[in-house]
Amino acid sequence: MQVKTSSIKLKVPDGSEAVLVKNLYLSCDPYMRGRMNRPISASYIGSFQPGSPISGYGVSKVLDSGHPNFKKGDLVWGLTGWEEYSLITATESLFKIHNTDVPLSYYTGILGMPGMTAYAGFYEICSPKKGEYVFVSAASGAVGQLVGQFAKLLGCYVVGSAGSKDKVDLLKNKFGFDEAFNYKEESDLDAALKRYFPEGIDIYFENVGGKMLDAVLLNLRVHGRIAVCGLISQYNLERPEGVHNLSALLLKQARMEGFLAPSFYHKYSNYLELVLPYIKEGKVTYVEDIAEGLESSPAALVGLFTGRNVGKQVVVVARE
Amino acid sequence: MQVKTSSIKLKVPDGSEAVLVKNLYLSCDPYMRGRMNRPISASYIGSFQPGSPISGYGVSKVLDSGHPNFKKGDLVWGLTGWEEYSLITATESLFKIHNTDVPLSYYTGILGMPGMTAYAGFYEICSPKKGEYVFVSAASGAVGQLVGQFAKLLGCYVVGSAGSKDKVDLLKNKFGFDEAFNYKEESDLDAALKRYFPEGIDIYFENVGGKMLDAVLLNLRVHGRIAVCGLISQYNLERPEGVHNLSALLLKQARMEGFLAPSFYHKYSNYLELVLPYIKEGKVTYVEDIAEGLESSPAALVGLFTGRNVGKQVVVVARE
């Protein structure tokens, strides 16, 4: 990645249905790693094009519009470019922002794709019930912190794992997890999980994959559910680690299911109805890790894969 | 395993609610391998007790009964002992046999636990739809042969894998699979699956695990489903093989789910209503591999794990 300077006319070409936006906040998300690979036929989103700006989720302000649904001054979130100004032709991926009495950057996180990921993954994929035992990995991240809070609000017992003392403190003291641990300090993940889940795990919200998944499989309860949201520990490996304990799915009659937030975007308004009151009443909090300036975005993105970020990684391009 | 001779009184003890049965047909099933391990806390069925008869599914005739639901002359299927006569105290595991115009041995297979496994796994876990692409491994086995036929009856495209030319012939010529292949002759399982499923796999009925599972994951379609019925290739390994391609669950928004037939036994009468007409009308056929005599049962059981059996492995202890 490199920063390039060029110029763009701040106007939609005549006859085009595109919108021209000023980008305010850009979102660094783990799924973007997959877009650095060669395209695979069935990928749900295209690979990055060498020589073109990175594309990703962001919050933007409409400066000019050829599309009847958008007008100058509108705030939107959706897929945009990693640049100061973008001409967006795929306007079907844009959501208009109506609620502005929350931080605008939240539309890269709790009110955007990661929020929908937590909502769909937890409520739709996991079918959670009050009192169940819930484990979340990468629990202080953009999605994990929400899953843990949603689970607590439902009356579940919730434990999170993360990769530093600061993150573990956040989980326990800010997000209200019942317990949390630093996976880097556990030489035996199976033993760690047995310590926190002597009765076993009903729901695992999977963000990391690899050894943690193998350890969770050993600790599943009957009819356990694993929502496969991400496998961040595996994305930079030449070959993903082998998972050895899948026989647990059989013995425990358990389910493991992958999902992608965009398949649930038709429920976005339901989600806002749920989560906006939670935010305003202080029942859910959201921690962001803010990088300043477009030039900070490559390092911010790469930092996800070593866990450098604390909370949702956002890049501020402009504040308004 | 060894054959021991001892004597038993062919009468239920006074005051007992047990039943005393003569065992006719014994069932050799892959799940029994797990019962040779030390008990694990959450196992769904106990380990075998060294020094005691093997227990397993069988078809038996009641000789004496202390239980109001059973009387002398009744035919039953359920958990019994690998012996000529058994005193069964866990009578809740016994089903009375009402339909005797089919081979009695079928109650160890198509009309017993393996039948319920195919029924529950295919219809309940896979939620199949007409026209979908279905792959079945260990496809000529007690369960696989039924899944393939059920899928064909529903209008699916069905391919099966098995471990010999004879079995592949059975799949194509007797069970009506669209295609079948000998996995032992395929050096690249991924390539084999791409040959038979150029459009990918909607449903995988998993009986084997390991490398085949890894190859299927690479060929899943969006919203694919994997019913984990068994992992027979893994049961005799010191440590199960690693499965590397689980990220497919995420990219394809796919589901992988383990299940056990006994959780669906409350639907047994529904299953009989479906399958008995199929049998009588010749729409479903069932192939058994019959071993004669109780003394043949150890080798018959062990043979499952090298694929020696062709079709459902049954041991005949007595024919009436």
UniProtKB/TrEMBL annotation, chains A, B:
Keywords per UniProt: Oxidoreductase
> Cross-referenced Gene3D superfamilies, in alphabetical order?
Medium-chain alcohol dehydrogenases, catalytic domain, NAD(P)-binding Rossmann-like Domain
Ranges of residues in domain Enoyl reductase (ER): 4-315
Highest taxon, organism lineage: Eukaryota
Q: What is this protein called?
A: Enoyl reductase (ER) domain-containing protein
| TM segment ranges | none
- State the Gene Ontology terms under molecular function: 2-alkenal reductase [NAD(P)H] activity
Pfam families the UniProt entry points to: ADH_N_2 (PF16884), ADH_zinc_N (PF00107)
